[in-house]
# Entry
Amino acid sequence: MTAYIALLRAVNVGGTGKLPMSELTAMCEAAGFEEVKTHIASGNVVFVSDLSEAQVRKALEERLAAYAGKPVGVVVRTASEMAAVLNANPFPDAKPNFTVAIFLNGKPAGDALETLRNRAEDEEVRLGKREIYVSYGSGMGRSKLAIPAAKEGTARNMNTIAKLARMAADRE
# Structure
């Protein structure tokens, strides 16, 4: 069995995509996932499964679309991949709650850094394997930074990533 973390895009954020975490848990259990546990109400779920990453993603996307009546973006990482994202953070000295990894389902576009708009002087952006790392020097709330390459991604701050990595490691 593999420990996975599924990150849902635009769930319970800013009044969009309302999904009780009890419903998400039930969907995961109906898909045959085991040891299911959610973390905060923004669409983070950890579980174990014998399925491949692609199969896990497909199973969740199908159930979420049936529930929401529209597609819901899902990004999946294994426990070791989530730990690697945390360890690869290029901004280790930045505030963890002001630093995010934007999770993508594929490699960031080659022109991802060239297409940035409205970047403030205290904001830094670096590319990862299937992530875009952002350090928001003054915080995300005031940022005007636009990252077109992140359109289909979902961001989590370093505190959340650390917690999810620990939760998944406990299931391996």
